[in-house]
Each structure stands twice: as C-alpha cells, then as structure tokens.
C-alpha cells in the first residue's frame, strides 16, 4: 500500500515570497498525546515571513510554514481522551524551525494546543484567532495592571494590537490606541478610549505600554516612572529605565487559554478580522500580500 501524501507550503532556501513552494510530502501521523487535523483554514503571520527570510535559522533544511489552524480532527493519537474524529477545532502549531506547519492539507498538534472552534464565526475567522489571540491575551496579563489603569497599545489597528485593545478594555483598563491616521474609527470601535496617530504622543504618561508595533524605546518613553512595558518579540525589548518594569511576551500553545478566547468570540466580546483568503496553491501570492503596507486583518490560506 502506497504512502498517503499531501501538499504543504515550505521553503528550502531563504528570501522573498518567491521562495515559498508547494511540496508533496507524506501525511503526518499523530503520536501519543497528539491529534491530526484536516486543515480547513490557516493564518499567515509575520513570523512566517521571518521564517521564510531566514531570521530564525534552519539553513539547508526544508522548513514548514504556518502556526494557526482551524479544521476538524481526523485521527487521534494514543492516550488522547476527550476528543473525537470530526470535532471542529482551532489550535496553535508552535515553532519556527519545523519540517511542517499548518500551511498544509493536514497538521499534527499536541492535544494541549487545541480548543473547540468557535461556532459563531466562519472558518477563516476562526483561523485568525490562535496566534494573535494568545499573544494579545498573554501580553495583557503580563501588564499586571489594575482596572482603571491607563495603557497605550501601539500598532492598535493590527491583528494582535486590535485584539489587545479589546482584551485590555475588557479587563477594565483605559486604552489609548496608537495607529495610522485613518484608523481612529476602527480602534475606537474595538474599545479604545483615546486615539493617537502614528508619530504622536498620548496626553500624558501612561501606567503601561503594550508595544505591538515594536517601537521599543520610543514607546517606553510614554510610560510613567515605575510603570510597565510589555514587548511582543523576545530579545527586542528596550533597556529598563526610571523604574519601569520591562517584560517580553513569548507566545505558547495553550488550549485552555485558547478555549477562553473562543468563549469570548462566541459571546460577541472579541472581534476577529480577516483581510484576504488565498488558496494554499497561491501561498507565495499570500506572502506578497503580507508584505503590502496597510493590511488590516489576518491573511488566511485554505487548502
């Protein structure tokens, strides 16, 4: 009996969108504690462009792309309980240097990385949740600010920044959103109490900054003495000063937290945004679109 194969978007050399190729590879099998998901949609994130460009290493290897996934379980590994074939799920396939990701027809994830898919949104929107939602939720939690505290969210119109605005406002924080000049209506609709156009400054020092735009020291300068700065890229945070607590958030696969975010989506308390949907066969075109300024929403690939 011949081995089953599938198509997957991979890179075998570093560079621009043209380095993304479709490869025919064996369908992966779940091991103990894992499930295999028939991919219905998968998000394209900036980290995928970083992998493609060689920012994380892996030279000479075939590297798979894709972290977000929405689909249905089609095979269950040994020792997995609580899930059945056909269950609709979302999940996070963590890892920068990996032979396969979620930009494929099937993906294998640890069972602890998945949650039941939201029933109130379509599949592309569901695929926009895992990486951005977990990143934003963990960053808001790392702020450690009490309700009523002020927070500046940079990059507030982006996918992660927009979710951070919503989650911070829901946590009772008074959010000032920093985004492009044309984004005020959007970020206010997400829960921002105040708006600052890119290049501007808030009315006064804030208790904390959630730096989704990776502005570094320029964002930390807006934090009051003894406040908090949370960056979203490991090893890119500015040096601490004036007693400001500087934190770096690194996302992790967390099915329990993802399930809580799904509940917020289903309750209408968390808005997911999709910019474009491309077939998997046009993965390179999707990467070109990702590089276009002004994308407002997650780019999604569908096998």
UniProtKB/TrEMBL annotation:
InterPro entries: ADH-like_N, ER, GroES-like_sf, NAD(P)-bd_dom_sf, Zinc-ADH_QOR/CCCR. Keywords: NADP. Residues 15-301 form the Enoyl reductase (ER) domain. The keyword Lipoprotein does not apply. Coiled coil: none annotated. This is NADPH:quinone reductase.
């Amino acid at each position: 009996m011949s081995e089953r194969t599938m198509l997957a978007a991979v890179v075998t050399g570093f560079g621009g969108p043209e380095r993304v190729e479709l490869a025919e590879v064996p369908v992966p099998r779940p091991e103990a504690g894992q499930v295999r998901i028939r991919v219905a949609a998968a998000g394209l994130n900036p980290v995928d462009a970083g992998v493609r460009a060689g920012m994380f290493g892996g030279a000479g290897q075939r590297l798979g792309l894709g972290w977000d996934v929405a689909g249905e379980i089609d095979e269950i590994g040994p020792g997995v309980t609580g899930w059945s074939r056909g269950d609709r799920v979302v999940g996070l396939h963590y890892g920068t240097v990996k032979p396969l990701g979620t930009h494929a027809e099937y993906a294998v994830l640890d069972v602890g990385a998945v949650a039941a898919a939201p029933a109130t949104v379509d599949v592309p929107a569901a695929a926009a949740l895992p990486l951005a939602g977990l990143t934003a939720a963990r960053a808001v939690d790392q702020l450690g600010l009490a309700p009523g505290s002020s927070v500046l969210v940079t990059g507030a119109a982006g996918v992660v920044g927009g979710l951070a605005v919503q989650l911070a406002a829901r946590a009772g924080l008074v959010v000032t959103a920093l985004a492009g000049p044309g984004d005020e209506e959007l970020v206010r609709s997400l829960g921002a109490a105040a708006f600052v156009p890119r290049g501007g400054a808030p009315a006064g020092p804030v208790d904390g900054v959630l730096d989704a735009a990776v502005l570094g020291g320029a964002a930390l300068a807006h934090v009051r003495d003894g406040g908090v700065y949370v960056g979203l890229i490991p090893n890119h945070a500015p040096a601490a000063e004036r007693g400001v607590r500087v934190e770096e958030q690194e996302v992790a696969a967390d099915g329990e937290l993802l399930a809580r975010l799904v509940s917020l989506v289903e309750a209408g308390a968390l808005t997911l945004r999709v910019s474009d949907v491309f077939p998997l066969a046009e993965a390179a075109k999707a990467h070109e679109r990702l590089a276009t300024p002004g994308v407002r929403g997650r780019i999604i690939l569908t096998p």
